[in-house]
């Protein structure tokens, strides 16, 4: 065999030795690292419980022909009751001292929930809930809630639900979640039909305009959520007091912000009846909270 046949052998042997040493060094470093934390039986049980709860929130939608989550599914259900209502109300910081440099948070104003179409025609009697969950606590903040004995009657396409919330300003740190669960009342409760049921995720990075529209095609209907994005928001709480005159008020009261032309319905005597305002003469509003942009640039 010629000498030239052995010219490359030492180089390959050295490379093999370098790889072996590198592997040894890697094992030594790994041996010095703390072992991964041991998963306790309690943690395994918690994870399995959360997975089981999340599976219950998946429902088949016959209109779409597939299964979807209908409620927020990523909560720790060992600590959170998915049906618990937010404990935070409006005017939490009315008497607080706001420090200089405090950064305001974005918000959403719910403008309306419109019935775009009904696969079962009209008129229909609707009941159920529309919930808005935000970054503050992810708990239920109802914008529509009626039981079976207090249905709203929808007579034609394009009518809107009569909203009664949110109960406080919406804290929008990039995500908010709508949960829709509307049913049609029939003669007997066992014959009631699902009208719309869905989970809608509002993602801040996808917002391109002040007024946002989310169309929800589900079960036997098409529903449109219309809301306004409010940047660097302040929570406005409204109270209307009758200073003189009759102790009841007939008509409608609406509010709007300068950057959105749509009006928010605060009071409608056709809904309430001509309500006596009580000893303090304050009108009981459908909604009393709106978010407004801070135009001072604070």
Automatic annotation (TrEMBL):
Domain (DUF6598) ranges: 108-292
Superkingdom of this protein's organism: Eukaryota
InterPro entries: DUF6598
Compositionally biased spans, kind Acidic residues: 1-21
Location of region: Disordered: 1-44
Protein name: DUF6598 domain-containing protein
């Amino acid at each position: 065999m010629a000498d030239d046949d052995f010219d490359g052998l030492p180089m390959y042997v050295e490379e093999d030795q370098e790889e072996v040493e590198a592997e040894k060094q890697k094992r030594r470093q790994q041996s010095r690292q703390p072992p991964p934390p041991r998963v306790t039986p309690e943690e395994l049980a918690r994870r399995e419980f959360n997975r089981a709860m999340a599976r219950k929130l998946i429902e088949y939608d016959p209109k779409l022909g597939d299964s979807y989550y209908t409620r927020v599914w990523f909560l720790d259900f060992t600590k959170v009751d998915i049906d618990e209502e937010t404990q935070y109300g409006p005017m939490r910081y009315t008497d607080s001292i706001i420090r200089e440099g405090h950064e305001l948070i974005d918000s959403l104003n719910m403008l309306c929930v419109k019935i775009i179409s009904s696969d079962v025609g009209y008129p229909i009697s609707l009941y159920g809930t529309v919930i808005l969950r935000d970054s503050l606590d992810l708990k239920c903040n109802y914008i529509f809630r009626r039981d079976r004995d207090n249905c709203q009657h929808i007579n034609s396409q394009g009518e809107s639900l009569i909203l009664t919330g949110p109960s406080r300003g919406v804290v929008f740190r990039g995500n908010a979640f709508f949960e829709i669960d509307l049913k049609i009342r029939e003669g007997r409760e066992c014959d009631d039909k699902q009208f719309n049921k869905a989970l809608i995720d509002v993602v801040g990075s996808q917002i391109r305009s002040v007024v946002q529209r989310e169309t929800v095609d589900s079960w036997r209907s098409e529903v449109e959520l219309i809301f306004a994005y409010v940047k660097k928001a302040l929570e406005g709480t409204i109270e209307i007091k009758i200073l003189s005159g009759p102790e009841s008020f007939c008509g409608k009261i609406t509010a709007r912000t300068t950057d959105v032309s749509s009006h928010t319905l605060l009071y409608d005597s056709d809904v309430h009846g001509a309500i006596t305002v009580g000893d303090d003469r304050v009108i009981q509003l459908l909604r009393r909270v709106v978010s407004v942009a801070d135009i001072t640039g604070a």
